[in-house]
Design brief:
57 residues, mainly alpha, flat
Length: 57
């Protein structure tokens, strides 16, 4: 990971402390802090869309 703004341990902390049962952490190796404008942006948005579509309300 090449995010020089937020430490990757922050994602682990949030994951452990969010009460939702539906959650996961995914790292994008070619991305930085502004992930929606990164090389992996298409994968990011696809993953977000898939996550939302698979939530059972």
């Amino acid at each position: 990971m090449i995010d020089d703004t937020v430490h990757h341990k922050s994602a682990d902390y949030i994951y452990k402390n969010v009460s939702s049962k539906v959650k996961y952490v995914k790292y994008y190796e070619n991305s930085n802090h502004i992930i929606c404008h990164s090389i992996d942006s298409k994968d990011v948005f696809t993953d977000i869309e898939n996550f939302i579509e698979n939530i059972n309300f």
